[in-house]
């Protein structure tokens, strides 16, 4: 058990390390070729895509991950086909709305209207990639996962470098690199689904089940995105896009913490689902405690390397971002603990409950952002992010303990 988990963590961690290093390795290039204001606009575009994606993806990747262990292959094939069709229909609707109201949306979020109409396209390019990676993960095809993820990562870096450095396309070049790579891996991902016999005839029999699982998760994902990303909008409104650029640098550097927690959770979640099916509570408690300790050690190591990381990867013009780093890193540590707590909610399809908690967390984050940015300035949103994730993680653990203990499941599972 531990040997298999360790091996998978190493493979997932290696692929995620390379994937996470692309934004970091791009920092010396982007901070040299982009102004803080352009970097801030780029961050606002990515933030808006993250807000939009749940409405197109419909969380079908999470639904497929759960149903993988419950449906026969022939049923799973129909389920995936049904899910892809729903995602396509959602994209068409959202694209129409953004096209019709492009000027109003442009003024509201501070992005050129030409870019607004591409946001839905950028979002749907993520769908096939996420579904393919999710299937590789739950089926524990870790080597295939690593190759697929690594290929996307290297292509992302190569295209971005070409467009930004050689063609001097600036912010647009970075977007062309990112979503050009998403397009290529979407084609490869669809081939993976086809060859793996995951694509069947159009069938709507699972529509209700997919929507019942995925729709309650939309507020959950949006709430999580608000907690993670709304700070950019507050900074942009009060202080401008240049300050957003500085803050985003600190956010990317501290997000190295997510490399550890995401890698571990990707390896752990499929094993946890099987252990839950076998009702192996003791092993779950032991592994979860061990993983929590790993997260703490990882956060401490990243904090000690702060000066080294900024010196290597960040241009001097962006060094003011260091002041936000410790608070964002601590927030990511609390978010890592939250990952461990929520897997059981997904397994039992308690997505509606999780969504309710997340919405409350998002509202708390918006309130804290508003109060702290007025009292402390830009660093106030870093305080708000850290405090929000602490309270949110605590509430999720408490709710899980109170509601699931009677079913024989400890909160530490």
UniProtKB/TrEMBL annotation:
Source organism: Oleispira antarctica RB-8
One GO CC annotation: plasma membrane
Entry keyword annotation includes GTP-binding: no
Major localization listed first in the record, in broad terms: membrane
Transmembrane segments: 9-33, 39-58, 79-103, 115-135, 147-171, 177-198, 210-229, 249-269, 290-312, 324-341, 353-373, 379-403
Membrane topology: Multi-pass membrane protein
The name this protein goes by in its record: Similar to capsular polysaccharide protein
Domain of life of the organism encoding this protein: Bacteria
Keyword Cell membrane: yes
């Amino acid at each position: 058990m531990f040997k298999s988990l360790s091996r998978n963590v190493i493979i997932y961690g290696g692929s995620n390390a390379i994937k996470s290093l692309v934004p970091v390795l791009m920092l010396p290039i982007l901070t040299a070729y982009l102004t803080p204001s352009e970097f801030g606009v780029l961050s606002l575009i990515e933030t808006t895509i993250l807000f939009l994606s749940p409405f197109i993806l419909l969380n079908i990747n999470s639904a497929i991950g759960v149903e993988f262990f419950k449906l026969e292959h022939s049923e799973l094939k129909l389920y995936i086909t049904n899910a892809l069709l729903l995602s396509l229909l959602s994209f068409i609707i959202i694209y129409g709305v953004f096209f019709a109201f492009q000027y109003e949306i442009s003024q509201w979020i501070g992005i050129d209207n030409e870019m607004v109409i591409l946001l839905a396209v950028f979002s749907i390019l993520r769908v096939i990639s996420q579904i393919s990676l999710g299937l590789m993960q739950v089926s524990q095809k870790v080597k295939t996962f690593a190759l697929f993820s690594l290929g996307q990562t290297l292509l992302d870096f190569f295209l971005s470098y070409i467009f930004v450095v050689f063609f001097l396309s600036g912010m647009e070049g970075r977007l062309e690199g990112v979503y050009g790579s998403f397009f290529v891996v979407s084609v490869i991902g669809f081939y993976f689904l086809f060859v793996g016999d995951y694509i069947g005839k159009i069938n709507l029999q699972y529509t209700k089940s997919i929507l019942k699982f995925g729709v309650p998760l939309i507020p959950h994902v949006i709430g999580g995105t608000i907690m993670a990303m709304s700070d950019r909008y507050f900074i942009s409104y009060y202080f401008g896009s240049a300050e957003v650029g500085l803050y985003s640098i600190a956010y990317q550097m501290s997000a190295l913490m997510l490399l550890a927690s995401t890698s571990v959770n990707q390896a752990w979640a499929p094993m946890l689902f099987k252990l839950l099916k076998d009702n192996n509570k003791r092993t779950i408690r032991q592994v979860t405690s061990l993983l929590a300790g790993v997260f703490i050690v990882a956060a401490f190591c990243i904090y000690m390397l702060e000066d080294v990381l900024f010196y290597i990867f960040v241009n001097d013009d962006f060094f003011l971002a260091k002041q936000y780093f410790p608070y964002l890193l601590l927030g990511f540590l609390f978010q890592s603990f939250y990952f461990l707590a929520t897997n059981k909610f997904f397994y039992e399809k308690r997505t509606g409950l999780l969504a309710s908690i997340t919405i409350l967390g998002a509202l708390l984050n918006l309130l804290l952002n508003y109060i702290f940015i007025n009292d402390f300035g830009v660093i106030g949103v870093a305080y708000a992010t850290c405090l929000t994730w602490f309270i949110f993680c605590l509430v999720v653990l408490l709710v899980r303990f109170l509601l699931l203990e009677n079913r024989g499941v400890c909160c530490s599972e």
